[in-house]
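To: structure desk
From: M.T.
Subject: fold request, one chain
Message: Could you run this one when you get a chance? Sequence is below, nothing fancy, just the single chain.
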Amino acid sequence: MGLADRMAPSADLMTGMMDRLGKTVVGADEAPTPARARMIRNMVFRCTACPEPAACAALQRTVLHLDAPPLFCPNTEALKGLPDA
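Reply: Done. Structure tokens follow.
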């Protein structure tokens, strides 16, 4: 499976992780910016390289709320920097 084939599932996992952490792409008082779009794109790319996509998917199937990303998540720092939903 090539990078393009992994992009949609990775984007789904990343947005699912954001939902469980209560994070959003753009805060209520923010406008979308090209810099924010690049950050999200980079997060999806990091997600495609995750060593544990099956574990992430299994976690998301069983847990609706998380206080922190799992230890294996390559987007931990970026997720912490997102505004709360």
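Reply (cont.): The helical segments are 3-21, 34-48, 53-62, 76-81. Let me know if you need anything else for the meeting.
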